[in-house]
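Q: Could you fold this chain for me?
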Amino acid sequence: MMSADSTEMMAVLRARLLDHPLWEFALALYARPGVEAACLRLQDEAGVDVCELLWRCWLLRHGARPSPALEAALPAVLAWQQEVTVPLRALRRRLKAEAATAGGVAELRETLKRAELQAEGETLSRLERLATSEGFPLCTIGGSDAEKVLASRLTSQKKPDLSTLATLIAQLDPPPGPR
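A: Sure. Below is the predicted structure, expressed as structure tokens.
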């Protein structure tokens, strides 16, 4: 059971998350040096879902991580990624070579690229709603735990390259202090 202090702390944390939208955070982080390459490498070589990774970085940036209850709710959002975003990405990538020589295919590929980005935006929106919902508590963490927290949660059948993960973590701003 949460105490009055921890309930108040969760309210402050949720307010902070709502004041700093995930989409804006994801775009800003992704644009930082080395982050795009690190995210794509983790996606392609270790099967890491980039939207989930950016979401976890957003939470870490605010000194939080998902609770077990929130972790249990993730499969529904990640199913969206697998059913919608991943097929769009695969088709866009498959058309890359042909798009270089066929204008109509290049136009179709650009349409797929926009649809993929829109699907990722929907994923991030769903993840943000989960994290800011009162039905799912968050856990607070210390700033030095970021690499350990990310590495422990972003494992798949292929282990992520920790040096690539460290590149990403180095671009995270430290969590803000208490308000």
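A (continued): Strands lie at 64-66, 138-140.
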